[in-house]
Design goal:
The protein is mainly beta. The chain is built from two helices and 22 strands.
């Protein structure tokens, strides 16, 4: 979510978020993540089950679905918000704006509370999920990118190859893992979702989702979503894949992206 190098094990130039040249993007993908898709863990494809409208002005950072409710967080200073969204229509049912100084990031729903990260402010916010009323805040080191939970811990990404597990009561770091594939670290891990005992992670500025073993950090597989959003529906404004939601009750899986006009329910299939 910021200025990043090409990641561990692959040294190269530094690119500015939003201004990365195409050549630099290709190098970043091959060095930090896509090597796993070609040389390490196996790659799967997708089928679209259904799609729904999505707010094309939403700079999507986090996505959560629980008990019939879809929650979304958005970023950018002056546009960051916590939302509840109608799945079928994409209508924003309620929204809570962050102060302009905050750049909203990933969210997780745990124990009836919504936890929300910010990018570079080193602070997270806690809201009552039923009312959106603030109930507290917490601090953390480094940047905030993605957030999910495994039923006992919050799991946080910061754009590197490291995922941190936080105690939901104290918000202190319990442990951390380094995500690797074929012996190399996978960087730029962004939005997260916990799916059937695995951590799904968007790899920023790619169409890849990494399936990560939460015990070891090893990538168990890749999901390639290339072609999911057709070119005619792209805005050209950093409209990258970002947003994963899973309903454990029905095993439905949804994905979307920043400024995307569609939210997709997908099924993972052999590539």
């Amino acid at each position: 979510m910021s200025i990043q190098s090409l990641g561990s094990g692959c040294r190269g130039p530094v690119f500015l978020r939003g201004l990365m040249p195409l050549l630099g993007l290709a190098l970043l993908v091959s060095c930090s993540s896509a090597h796993g898709a070609s040389q390490g863990a196996p790659t799967q494809g997708f089928e679209v089950v259904q799609s729904w409208p999505h707010d094309p002005r939403a700079f999507t950072e986090g996505l959560v679905y629980r008990e019939g409710r879809l929650y979304e967080s958005t970023g950018l200073n002056g546009s960051s918000s916590m939302r509840e969204v109608a799945l079928e229509t994409g209508q924003v049912l309620r929204s809570l704006a962050l102060e302009q100084k905050y750049f909203g990031e990933g969210i997780a729903l745990f124990g009836g509370k919504l936890f929300m990260l910010t990018w570079r402010s080193h602070v997270g916010f806690i809201y009552d999920a039923a009312t959106f009323q603030p109930t507290g805040q917490f601090s953390f080191k480094g940047e905030g990118w993605g957030l999910t939970d495994d039923g006992s811990s919050l799991i946080m990404s910061n754009g590197s190859s490291t995922l941190r597990f936080l105690d939901p009561a104290t918000l202190k770091v319990q442990r951390s893992i380094t995500v690797t594939d074929a012996g190399r670290e996978v960087s730029l891990l962004n939005e997260l979702e916990y799916v059937k005992g695995e951590i799904y992670a968007n790899v920023w500025r790619t169409d890849l989702i990494a399936r990560i073993d939460p015990a070891t950090g090893q990538v168990k597989g890749w999901i390639d979503l290339t072609g999911l959003l057709v070119p005619s529906e792209r805005s050209g404004k950093e409209d990258v894949l970002n947003g994963i939601a899973y309903d454990p009750a029905t095993e439905r899986l949804w994905v979307t992206g920043k400024f995307w006009p569609r939210l997709f329910q997908i099924r993972i299939v052999p590539k």
